[in-house]
Amino acid sequence: TENTTLLHSVHRANTCVRITPSLMKLKIHLISIVMYKAS
């Protein structure tokens, strides 16, 4: 059972690494929109 847990955590880490850059881009995009509307 320990091996499957390890595999799951590794898979989750890989998914996070894959998703994070697009989330950062989205966040930057939203911040720029908010700044643009605020000015």
Largest sheet: none
Runs in which pLDDT lies below 50 for 5 or more consecutive residues are: none
Record field, number of beta strands: 0
Rounded radius of gyration (Å): 17 Å
Q: Report the order of strands and helices.
A: H
What distance lies between the first and last C-alpha atoms, to the nearest angstrom? 55 Å
Amount of beta strand: under 5%
Bulk shape = rod-shaped
> How many helices?
1
Mean pLDDT: 90
Query: Helicity level, as a percent range?
Result: over 70%
Number of domains: 1
Structural class: mainly alpha
Q: What oligomeric state best describes the polypeptide chains here?
A: single chain
Q: What is the topology?
A:
Blueprint (H helix, E strand, L loop, with lengths): L1 H37 L1
Briefly characterize the structure.
By secondary structure, the protein is mainly α. It has one domain (1-39).
